[in-house]
Amino acid sequence: MRKPMPLFLLVLPLALWGSAQAAPILSIAGPTTVTQGQSNVVYDIDVADDGGGIDIGGADLYVTYDPSVFAYVSAAAGSLIGGVDTFSANDLGTEINLSVASLFGISSAGNLGQITFDVLSDAPLPGTSLTFDTGQSSLLDSGFQPVVPDYAGLDVAVTGAVPAPGAALLLPLGLLAMRAARMKAVGQS
Predict the structure, then answer these.
(1) Cis geometry, peptide bond prior to residue 126 (ω within 30 degrees of 0)
(2) N or C: the chain end with fewer CB closer than 10 Å?
(3) Contacts of 174 (CB under 8 A, 6+ apart)
(4) Domain ranges across the chain
């Protein structure tokens, strides 16, 4: 005769499954197509709920970028950062380090910050990516326990600069002026 399984062995997996820590989703949002020479392109660093709630006490995020495409301009705190929270940004040449600390914790989805770039006039085509350096980035909950979020980067296409309409007229006018000067010179000889 088989012994019945103890009740705690049936309940324990359910208790452990129900206590799994939520993993917020950190993402980069903004224009997916930029033009060579474009100024002040803003990218948002957003946090979203994966369905298990959000609890962020601090974050140390590293956003990687290609310095042959982007020139860092500035960073600013997002709408989730309140008066008693701190936000700082440092450009490390190929990464932007964003640090956030919250006294009361961040518990809702929204914007942690914005990074502004200029697109270099000789940026290589066809494009690049903005990503999180998951090896260096870290997130803590309001109890200062590590949280492993899901990260979502962004692919950015770079297009060639389009000349101004007035500049396009200069070439034909220059050719006409050269032809007129040539005809005048031929007519005088």
Answers:
(1) yes
(2) N
(3) none
(4) 21-188
Looking up tokens 């950015």, which residue turns up? 156
pLDDT digits (tens, 9 = 90+) for 12-68: 333 334 444 568 999 999 999 999 999 999 999 999 998 888 999 999 999 999 999
**Structure tokens given for 173:** 């006018």
Distance CA 137, CA 122 (A): 30
Token pair 């998951």 is at which residue? 134
For residues 158 and 120, the answer to whether their CB atoms sit within 8 Å is no
Fold of the 21-188 domain:
Immunoglobulin-like (2.60.40)
Q: Which two tokens stand for residue 176?
A: 């006409």
Q: Is 80 exposed, middle or buried (0-12, 13-18, 19+ CB in 10 A)?
A: buried
Q: Record the tokens describing residue 144, joined without a space.
A: 């200062």
Are the C-beta atoms of 93 and 67 separated by less than 8 Å?
Answer: yes
Q: What does the pLDDT look like over 136-180, one tens digit per residue?
A: 999 999 998 999 999 999 999 999 876 666 655 666 767 777 777
Q: Helices marked H in the chain — which ranges?
A: 7-18, 165-188
At 133, the amino acid letter reads D
